[in-house]
Amino acid sequence: MSDGMLKVRGLKIGATVYPPGEKPHDIDIVHGVSFDLEQGKVLGLIGESGAGKSTIGLAAMAYGRGGVELTGGEVWVNGRDILQSSKGDLRSLRGGEVTYVSQSAAASFNPAKQIMEQVTEAAITHGKFSKAEAESRAVELFDKLGLPDPQNIGKRYPHQVSGGQLQRCMTALALCPEPDLVVFDEPTTALDVTTQIDVLMAIKDAIRETGVAALYITHDLAVVAQVSDDIMVLKMGEMVEYGTVDQIINAPKEEYTQALVSVRSIDHEEKAPAGVPVLKVENITARYKGTNFDVLKDINVELHAGQTLAVVGESGSGKSTLARVITGLLPQKGGNVHFAGRDLNPVMRTRPREDLRELQMIYQMADTAMNPRQTVGTIIGRPLEFYFGLRGAEKQKRIQELLDEIELGQGFQDRYPAELSGGQKQRVCIARALAAKPKLIICDEVTSALDPLVADGILKLLLDLQKREDVAYLFITHDLATVRAIADSIAVMYQGEVVRYGPKSEVLAPPFDDYTDLLLSSVPEMKLGWLESVIANRKMASAGN
Amino acid sequence: MHPIIKLVVQRLSLGILLLFAASAMIFGLTEALPGDAAQAVLGQTATPESLANLREEMGLNEPAISRYFDWLGGIMTGDLGSSIVNRLDIAESVGKRLGNTLFLAFWAAVVSVPLAIFLGLLAVRYRDRWPDKLISAITLTTISIPEFLIGYVLVYFLAVKMGWGTALAMVNDSMSLGQKLNAIALPVLVLTLVVLAHMMRMTRAAILNVMQSAYIETAELKGLSVFNVIAKHAFPNAVSPIVNVVMLNLAYLVVGVVVVEVVFVYPGMGQFLVDAVTKRDVPVVLACGVIFAAIYIGLNMLADIISILANPRLRHPK
């Protein structure tokens, strides 16, 4: 047992599940996975949700999240099987030899403590460094990770720095005790693309300079291709394929890997605007109560029946606020929302029922948008009663039609949301919106929480429905690949303004304005060396200026 | 201005406003009682003439509003009026009693608050295992038994049978601190048993709630010991609900100890109030009411302010 710092053999992981209406029982999440990782190498674990990638990552720390249990196999770290280790030995392993970077630094930092104390805590607890040494090492790491004011940023509290900065602080936290292995669990997934690129580069540099081994967990093949040496593709707790980055992205052997590589293959032909627009947003400005700046500044866009307007932007750009104004949740300060030949009342409560019916909404979190105590039939049936007064057999028939439309078919009526997968939940939400026979559906990041393959299915469904029902979509997203797949026209938003607006073919073609250029060039591409070339281009561009 | 100062000032002014409202309500309620102070002093056999004279003398013919403001003005300047039973200055006699009650409450708090929080942490540490269940069972039992019963049972077993502590908690100025503590040992024990469960359960629930957070996982993955994770990472984020329950219980220790004081014949506010009510000594009842209200409102205001201060987002704005 000398080769490799991490050696996993036949790892089996299980959990107890509590399905509604059934007896609790044990299930297997990971069925015998084996791999090796050498010092200084990065292994990417890739797969969709439920593939067991995070679970395997945490197994390198002999940690089971929630009710998860490591049921079999061996996990060798630095020459010992940690599944046989004592509690004391595990404590020195966790935070000492192996450290963890989570997806959401915002949730993973203790809000009540200063950043420095949290970054140095593990190193001090494990006696690796004195307090002074640990702090000077942390400052060094802050600097290396490109954080502003590295001397003093540690004195701040987590809520006082931005999301991208906090994610870098989390990386510093993981590297501070000089571990042998770092588990990165989707470290850039929650970030905006333009922020992701810097954090990604910082992580990559830090891994190289410290010579640490790393497990890099993500669902985004383009991202993992930038930082890993090898990639392991996982599906439903089993290894599908293992190879070098080059082999996986350029010559995938397995069908499943090929599907992952070629995802977002939807080709959507742009439709030219025709006739009178169904939605016309005129000179909209808006601000939140108690603030003194406009979150929306003079917004003008329009959308035609049966077409899709994609509103793209990063967090804080005002894209969701625009949806709130159109739906009347946030009455505008100035301007007009013109919808289906009439001006909409700014306040939702005062809008007639017909306005509510014709303007539906689908949300990012299908989970929280449904009452967990209602069956699918009740959820979809509610708008049928409310808007059309349907009852009894007539209502049942229509519910079934709608379920057929979203490709869920028989037997789903009596299920509860907890019994559905993420994609199925979003489909039910789509059916509920469709039930009202709307003219316009506002889709707010509806595919952002879904796996790429599932998201693809949802986008295809939305396009099909649009063709059949002639419904218009206002599609809010931060994901440019989604925009390419679904939009007819695009509005790019930045700091409350529309910086670029027009048909898809024009918006996505050069010459670009600075912001659109930055946004487009930040989307990870599935090729080796993409990250370095983008960073190099930007350095050259800024040197040129 | 720092937003936290603004919030604290808001809380303080709200508290003061509430106190005025409470004083008006207490005054109004005693007004609504049948009979008045003159009637109480002279008793059932008083002649209408003597009643009228006394009312004139005590200023009872003034309208209620102006008497309220007279009374309020007196309180603000430290003059609580005088008892109609023994003509003594209320501020003076209440002062001593209040001191005694606060003394008892203080030591009960010193014992019970840290003990409750420690037991709460322990219950979280051994969640759903026997120490957790034992702590819950014992504290819930003691809170469910009426306090006078606990008091008498403890007096019987500890003071009478075993000879520890004294059954009567008489204290006076000539006693040393040690003697006083010895005298109040049993009532402190009873009070502790009564308030322990609330604070312990809330500590347990608040920390368990925080234990679901992602930053607790981060702390666990740093290899910290379980107790360190709970005490250093979970507890600071659970302060707010805990402080609220602690303050409610502290208020109870001052305001709600009547029964315990009677059981142990302790010369505190509770006994004083009970005496005043039985003798229809309205000015004393009023004074006690206002003092209790002030303590109650003050402690809850303190809980609010501590909650505000415990929130890092408010303490360290962007």
Give the secondary structure arrangement, pairings included.
The complex is a heterodimer of chains A (545) and B (318).
Chain A lengths: L5 E12 L7 E13 L4 E5 L6 H7 L8 E10 L2 E2 L5 H7 L4 E4 L3 H4 L6 H11 L5 H14 L18 H13 L5 E5 L7 H18 L2 E6 L2 H7 L2 E6 L2 E7 H6 L4 H7 L17 E8 L9 E8 L4 E5 L6 H9 L6 E6 L2 E2 L9 H6 E4 L13 H13 L3 H14 L16 H14 L4 E5 L7 H18 L2 E6 L2 H7 L2 E6 L2 E7 H4 L6 H9 L7 H15 L1
Parallel strand pairs in A: 3-8, 3-9, 6-7, 7-8, 13-18, 13-19, 16-17, 17-18
Antiparallel strand pairs in A: 1-2, 1-4, 4-5, 9-10, 11-12, 11-14, 14-15, 19-20
Helix pairs in contact in A: 4-5, 4-6, 6-7, 13-14, 13-15, 14-15, 15-16
Chain B lengths: L2 H30 L4 H6 L5 H11 L5 H13 L13 H36 L4 H15 L2 H15 L15 H34 L3 H8 L4 H30 L2 H6 L5 H10 L3 H29 L1 H4 L3
Keywords:
heterodimer, A: 545 residues, alpha/beta, Rossmann fold, six-stranded mixed sheet, 20 strands, globular, B: 318 residues, MetI-like fold
Structure description:
The complex is a heterodimer of chains A (545) and B (318). Chain A has 545 residues and is α/β, with parallel strands linked by helices. Chain A folds into two domains: 40-61 and 84-261, Rossmann fold, CATH 3.40.50; 279-509, P-loop containing nucleotide triphosphate hydrolases (Rossmann fold), CATH 3.40.50. Helices cover 37% and strands 23% of the residues of chain A. Chain A has helices at residues 53-59, 87-93, 105-108, 115-125, 131-144, 163-175, 193-210, 221-227, 245-250, 255-261, 319-327, 353-358, 376-388, 392-405, 422-435, 452-469, 480-486, 504-507, 514-522, 530-544, and strands spanning 6-17, 25-37, 42-46, 68-77, 80-81, 98-101, 181-185, 213-218, 230-235, 238-244, 279-286, 296-303, 308-312, 334-339, 342-343, 359-362, 440-444, 472-477, 489-494, 497-503. In chain A, strands 6-7-8-3-9-10 form a six-stranded mixed sheet, with helices on both faces. A six-stranded mixed sheet of chain A has the order 16-17-18-13-19-20, sandwiched between helices. In chain A, strands 2-1-4-5 form a four-stranded antiparallel sheet, with helices on one face. In chain A, strand 4 (68-77) and strand 5 (80-81) form a beta hairpin. In chain A, helix 4 crosses helix 5 and helix 14 crosses helix 15. The longest helix of chain A has 18 residues, at 193-210. Chain A starts with 5 loop residues before the first strand and ends with a helix. Chain B has a domain at 105-278: Orthogonal Bundle (MetI-like fold). In chain B, 78% of the residues lie in helices and 0% in strands. In chain B, helix 1 (3-32) runs antiparallel to helix 13 and helix 10 packs antiparallel against helix 13. Chain B is globular. The two termini of chain B are 14 Å apart. At the A-B interface, helix 2 and helix 4 of A face helix 9 and helix 10 of B.
